[in-house]
Amino acid sequence: MALYIMMSNLTDEGRKTVKANPQRIKEVNKEVEAMGVKILAQYVVLGQYDFINILQAPDHETMAKMALELGSRGTLQTSTLAALTLDDFIKSLKK
């Protein structure tokens, strides 16, 4: 399974939703898992982004579909990076 880092920002509508119903974040997490993407870690952060997520998905297509689904709702914008663990990177250099 591939690793991804997803950085996201709430839109104005997303901020209103989270303020009115903070539990909605966990509901969305269940929806993400149902789309085949596992949430390994999730952080609320200060600065350029509102959330940083470490995710695992079977392939880029699954990840792209999930990001499109979330973004199409109009409550957040995402930016996603494919990631390698340091050990996997070192192993790939030895091939």
Keywords:
95 residues; 4 strands
Describe the structure.
- With 95 residues, the chain is α+β, with helices and mostly antiparallel strands.
- It has a single domain (2-93), classed as 2-Layer Sandwich (Alpha-Beta Plaits).
- It is built from four helices and four strands; from the N terminus they run E-H-H-E-E-H-E-H.
- The protein has helices at 12-20, 24-34, 60-72, 86-93; strands at 2-10, 38-44, 51-57, 76-83.
- The longest helix has 13 residues, at 60-72.
Task: Give the helices and strands, then pairings.
Blueprint lengths: L1 E9 L1 H9 L3 H11 L3 E7 L6 E7 L2 H13 L3 E8 L2 H8 L2
Antiparallel strand pairs: 1-3, 1-4, 2-3
